[in-house]
Design goal:
With 111 residues, chain A is mainly β. In chain A, a hairpin with a 3-residue loop joins strand 5 and strand 6. Chain A starts with 9 loop residues before the first strand and ends with a strand. Chain A has strands spanning 10-14, 19-24, 32-38, 45-51, 56-58, 62-67, 72-77, 86-95, 98-101, 105-110. Chain B is mainly β and 114 residues long. Chain B has strands at 3-7, 10-13, 19-26, 32-38, 44-51, 57-58, 67-73, 76-81, 90-99, 102-105, 109-113. The chains are: A mainly beta (111), B mainly beta (114).
């Protein structure tokens, strides 16, 4: 049946502000990490990735930070827009393209 | 660009029937595809790895006789939910890697079992 547990945490930000979404991963041997955006009723959409030999990577309006010491990832979204409202998941590639997803965070952008 | 499609996007069925969901890689071949299950407001949970030309690899706790996977060709994997029950209602998503460390996800299939 449906899993029982905590609902996804929600981050509410004002349009134009920066957003920071955090994620803890579990496997210290994982060498590749990805952030996905998922809109309601759709599949995950790739945002940005980072390899374990890096601690920061920037894209368009997004930055991913990796702290291997504490097994922590963060996604920073600059100048958050209403279209950024979605659920955000981090994922770690354990081996052979097998992804393990984090719990997810709901981002709500207030206009 | 590379795309993964799923069919159907939504399906409603009666309890006890079987439902087949298709996952296709468009414009690229995938010897491996992945099937995920997602409950409302929850994360994606990997169910199984579909392997072209060999048996699927199931994650712990996933019943292989319940969720039949067939990787019929290099562009098609199917997931059949057999003897579906209301607790099987969920959002099923597939993915296919275009290259190492590059996965594309399908749009998902919403299954509702009455």
């Amino acid at each position: 049946g449906e899993s029982v547990g905590l609902h996804l945490p929600t981050l509410s930000v004002q349009e134009g502000d920066n957003s920071i979404i955090n994620c803890a991963y579990s496997n210290s041997a994982s060498d590749y990490f990805i952030w996905y955006k998922q809109e309601s009723g759709k599949g995950p959409q790739f945002i940005i990735d980072i390899r374990s030999n890096m601690d920061k990577r920037q894209g368009q309006r997004v930055t991913v930070l990796l702290n291997k010491t504490v097994k922590h990832l963060s996604l920073q979204i600059a100048a958050t827009q209403p279209g950024d409202s979605a659920v955000y998941f981090c994922a770690e590639n354990e081996y052979g393209n097998k992804l393990v997803f984090g719990a997810g965070t709901i981002l709500r952008v207030k206009s | 660009g590379a795309v993964v499609s799923q069919h159907p996007s939504r399906v409603i069925c009666k309890s006890g029937t079987s439902v087949k969901i298709e996952c296709r890689s468009l414009d690229f071949q995938a010897t491996t595809m992945f099937w995920y299950r997602q409950f409302p407001k929850k994360s994606l949970m990997l169910m199984a790895t579909s392997n072209e030309g060999s048996k699927a690899t199931y994650e712990q706790g996933v019943e292989k006789d319940k969720f039949l996977i067939n990787h019929a060709s290099l562009t098609l994997s199917t997931l059949t939910v057999t003897s579906a029950h209301p607790e099987d209602s969920s959002f099923y998503i597939c993915s296919a890697p275009l290259a190492p460390d590059t996965q594309y996800f399908g749009p998902g299939t919403r299954l509702t079992v009455l």
